[in-house]
Amino acid sequence: MPNIKIFSGSSHQDLSQKIADRLGLELSKVMTKKFTNQETCVDIGESVHGEDVYIVQSGCGEINDNLMELLIMINACKIASASRVTAVIPCFPYARQDKKDENRAPISAKLVANMLTIAGADHVITMDLHASQIQGFFDIPVDNLYAEPAVLRWIRENISEWRNCIIVAPDAGGAKRVTSIADRLNVDFALIHKERKKASKVDHMVLVGDVKDRVAILVDDIADTCGTICHAADKLLSAGATRVYAILTHGIFSGPAITRINSACLEAVVVTNTIPQEDKMKHCSKIQVIGIAMILAEAIRKTHNGESVSYLFSHVPL
């Protein structure tokens, strides 16, 4: 592939390498460091003049530092006369702050969108945005890819009774996601309605749907402290489900998440590798990882060739 450069930020170099390998390319040279006052410094190690540049940086780890690093890398490539700079952000930072849900609350996802645009990004590729409205925060093209093809394949290959399973949304916001997967598998779906007294703490859950004598598969985009997922698993088992799996796109697993998963009645917690999971897997045998490098690599290839990305990943399993 001529006239293309793939750069990796610090957040997830393993995923960046897998994307480059899939495309048959070498990662381009970049050096990042911090000055003694903790300012981020980026040194682009090769010419990007007239090149189609892709910078892979996920919203994980030291999120604020990694976001600033991404902005600096974008700007460095832009002012070095790159023909186009695409930010490949598998897990979009601040995605849950996507609306003004109380007085004086910030819409931080919109702020991140503005920062990326001002830094010089011409295009953004991301995966399973927490809310599709975030695409509207940008004045540049945004391709929101879906982990659904990889999820469908994992279900068919790893759950022998998948034809008798039921796909469950742990909250109303995930209804569209689970109905799409249920339709592709030709199975039923259910919904858990949850009420919160405050953020990250669920007060009450109501199950809508029949899970009795079925394998229940919880599907969601983000798992942070895992209180919702573990509470939902208990609810499904008490309603007669034979086994419960959780499949998530972005496994943040902060705070008490690993402890909760280890003591929960979940058969497995399956996540994509939009966020590195090696350290978490050492402390929790239930965590399994689905690779999505091939989806991101194919999106980069199609974007570089001027082909459509959205139709492929919303309709055709890999």
UniProtKB/TrEMBL annotation:
Enzyme class at the top of the EC tree: transferase
Keyword Lipid biosynthesis on entry: no
EC number from the UniProt entry: 2.7.6.1
Keywords from the UniProt entry: ATP-binding, Kinase, Magnesium, Metal-binding, Nucleotide biosynthesis, Nucleotide-binding, Transferase
Presence of the UniProt keyword Transferase in the record: yes
Domain Ribose-phosphate pyrophosphokinase N-terminal: residue ranges: 4-120
SMART domains in alphabetical order: Pribosyltran_N
Record-linked Pfam families: Pribosyl_synth, Pribosyltran_N
This protein's pathway: Metabolic intermediate biosynthesis; 5-phospho-alpha-D-ribose 1-diphosphate biosynthesis; 5-phospho-alpha-D-ribose 1-diphosphate from D-ribose 5-phosphate (route I): step 1/1
NCBIfam families per the UniProt record, alphabetical: PRK01259.1, ribP_PPkin
Functional summary from the UniProt entry: Catalyzes the synthesis of phosphoribosylpyrophosphate (PRPP) that is essential for nucleotide synthesis.
Annotated PANTHER family: RIBOSE-PHOSPHATE DIPHOSPHOKINASE FAMILY MEMBER, RIBOSE-PHOSPHATE PYROPHOSPHOKINASE N-TERMINAL DOMAIN-CONTAINING PROTEIN
Subunit field text: Homodimer. The active form is probably a hexamer composed of 3 homodimers.
Family under the similarity heading: Belongs to the ribose-phosphate pyrophosphokinase family.
Name of this protein: ribose-phosphate diphosphokinase
Organism, as annotated: Equus przewalskii (Przewalski's horse)
